[in-house]
Write a structure and sequence with these properties.
By secondary structure, the protein is α+β, with helices and mostly antiparallel strands. Helices cover 31% and strands 38% of the residues. The two termini are 15 Å apart.
Length: 97
C-alpha cells in the first residue's frame, strides 16, 4: 500500500538538518525498497523546511515506525507529520491507473 508522508520542520532547524543530513541519506538508503520518492520541501530561498515522501508499506503503523526512525526525527526537526494513503494517477508522463 502507498502512503504520502508530508513533514513540516520546526522553525530554525536548518543547522540541525545539515548536521544530520549524511545520517539521513544513509537511513534513506537502508530503506530504499520502501521509498517510491523522497525529497525536501524548500522555502523561497532554497532552504529545506520539511519533506515529502511516497512510501510503500504494509500499513500505516509501518510508515509511522519508519518515520520515527529518521535521523531528522530523532534530532527533533519535525513539527508536524501527516501520513495518508496515496494512489498514483499520473506518472512519467502517462496515466498510471
Amino acid at each position: 500500500m502507498l502512503f504520502a508522508v508530508t513533514i513540516e520542520d520546526k522553525p530554525g532547524m536548518a543547522a540541525t538538518r545539515r548536521s544530520v543530513r549524511v545520517a539521513h541519506l544513509d537511513w534513506l538508503e537502508r530503506h530504499r525498497e520502501m521509498m517510491v520518492l523522497a525529497g525536501p520541501i524548500m522555502d523561497a530561498d532554497g532552504n529545506s523546511i520539511g519533506s515529502v515522501r511516497v512510501v510503500e508499506a504494509p500499513d500505516r503503523a509501518a510508515v509511522e515506525a519508519l518515520t520515527q526512525g529518521d535521523p531528522f526525527a530523532t534530532a527533533g526537526c519535525f513539527a508536524r507529520v501527516a501520513i495518508n494513503p496515496y494512489r498514483i494517477v499520473y506518472k512519467n508522463g502517462a496515466r498510471a491507473e
